[in-house]
Amino acid sequence: MLSQFLPVPTPETQHFWDGCKAGELRLQRCVACQDSYFPPRPFCPKCGSREVEVYRASGNAILWSYVINHLPRADFGSEPYAIAVVKLDEGPMMMTNIVDCPQTPEALQLDMPLQAAFGKRSDEITLPLFAPARP
Fold first, then answer.
1. Which residue from 71, 92, 100, 126 puts its CA 20 to 30 A from 43's CA?
2. How many Cα neighbours within 13 Å face the side chain of 119?
3. Which residues is 86 bridged to in the sheet?
């Protein structure tokens, strides 16, 4: 069953998953220190304030690091796929997959501009993915 690989939303993360389902990358920002952060949590990891807000991020990022996985996985098929860390324009980093691009070192260039894309995996979960930015 593929649902075993899917995240389970919690009250603290529901806004993030609702945003993904709506095709939006939603982050949190501290009202006190203005630091944006990921993953979602009810307090600022920088200053500890509980005065935080949810906002729609640009969805722009750069490829920070990656590894190409060649081992098959039921929910990804038998082709190699990139497991990546991207740095969002807003500052936070997130782990994701790169799509709409050959999964080769020649195509996956560090610092390449990326744009959020979303992959529906169930009625409840749409995953945030990243694709090369279109000019």
1. 126
2. 14
3. 63, 94
